[in-house]
Amino acid sequence: MKNLLSMEHLSTDEIYDLVTTASQYKSGERALPQFNDTYVTNLFFENSTRTKCSFEVAELKLGLKQVSFETSTSSVKKGESLYDTCKTLESIGVNLLVIRHSQNAYYEELENINIPIANAGDGSGQHPTQSLLDIMTIYEEYGSFDGLNVLICGDIKNSRVARSNYHSLRALGANVMFSSPEEWVDETLEAPYVNIDDVIDQVDIVMLLRVQHERHGIAGEANFAAEEYHQQYGLTQSRYDKLKDEAIVMHPAPVNRGVEIKSDLVEAPKSRIFKQMENGMYLRMAVISALLK
Ligand code: CP
């Protein structure tokens, strides 16, 4: 694998390979490779807790050396382009770049970068490592994707998580449905839109999305009061109680507690939210190993 940019670029075999490797790292069945004299830079132009920190832990466990980069103290502040920043890091001997950027498909400008790139999220485009860790979490639970009913709820239009999972879960055989306010419908994605209350007792997975406040600067975007949103589109106690016994609750986090999900339910028995984060570190080790092979 040369780069990891979008779930649309991965075959189902590649998805299964990455998830299997991550699971084997997690169980101890596969020894962790050690990459000596290998340098990585994590370039986060948007904020992050989970993706940045879990990439960092994954890199340290694989023996990589981290070359620090902060946008606030770098020459980005003097107007340096993303391409020039990346080309500079390549020129001075960095072997791998992990990049999060607010620009959709920022990586299209980086075709002439000759070291691997792991996309840690591009605007409202793609978030491939989030999708892969979600797939790993679902696979741990169900062992297959065929016919699973997945309900993705919330800010579909602005969510790179929704977009990545839409492509990958359908490719793996799951049925993907969306539920969202009309203003956040994404007409480019073909999954059916449903009322959460019509299907909550039938789904195998309910995946809640963070309301993407930072992407709502455009006139006409939905602007709901937190409680109103929670009652209409969120996981309330009453909806949770209607879930099938074996159903699971997912959220990429950070969670707006009391908005997408009732605060008490974040760690409820059916919630896999912290399991997703745990799996993310193993999954990112698998991605780094595949990129540096
Ligand atoms: N899920 C996710 O991408 O979280 P962060 O923005 O904290 O990395």
Structural class, by secondary structure, is alpha/beta
Total domains:
2
Q: What is the global morphology?
A: globular
Distance between the termini: 8 Å
Q: Using only CA atoms, what is the Rg?
A: 19 Å
Which ligands does the model contain, each kind named once? phosphoric acid mono(formamide)ester
Figure out the total of helices.
9
The percent range for strand residues is 5-15%
CATH topology of the largest domain: Rossmann fold
CATH class assignment of the largest domain: Alpha Beta
Which second-level CATH architecture of the largest domain applies?
3-Layer(aba) Sandwich
Largest sheet report: 4 strands, parallel
Ranges with pLDDT <50 over ≥5 residues?
A: none
This entry's quaternary arrangement is single chain
Q: Got a strand count?
A: 8
On the 0-100 scale, what is the average pLDDT?
A: 96
Helix content: 25-40%
Q: Report the order of strands and helices.
A: HEHEHEEHEHEHEHHEH
CATH superfamily heading of the largest domain: Aspartate/ornithine carbamoyltransferase
Widest beta sheet: strand line-up? 2-1-3-4
EC number: 2.1.3.2
Pathway: Pyrimidine metabolism; UMP biosynthesis via de novo pathway; (S)-dihydroorotate from bicarbonate: step 2/3
Pfam families: OTCace, OTCace_N
GO molecular function: amino acid binding; aspartate carbamoyltransferase activity
